[in-house]
Design brief:
Length: 81
């Protein structure tokens, strides 16, 4: 899978591919060179999924009711309360 293909892949599709790679590697029925290539692809997909989750987390805002009405607060800060 090319780098530009990985960038445009959905989170769900990346996770499915990552699960498929893990399954193949766990089977132990893969030649060493193929296992290394699968491992490298899996690491890239793992980083991509982590990045996509961070992007989504930054977009999520939690509305918190305060004395002055509703106040928008970033998701990460809301978890710290």
């Amino acid at each position: 899978m090319a780098a530009n293909e990985q960038e445009s892949i959905s989170f769900e599709a990346a996770m499915e591919r990552l699960e498929s790679i893990v399954s193949k590697l766990e089977s132990g029925d893969v030649p060493l060179e193929t296992a290394i290539e699968l491992f490298q692809e899996g690491m890239k997909l793992s980083q991509l999924c982590g990045s996509k989750l961070e992007q989504v987390e930054r977009k999520i805002e939690v509305l918190i009711e305060t004395e002055n009405g509703l106040h928008k607060k970033p998701f990460a800060q809301a978890n710290e309360d």
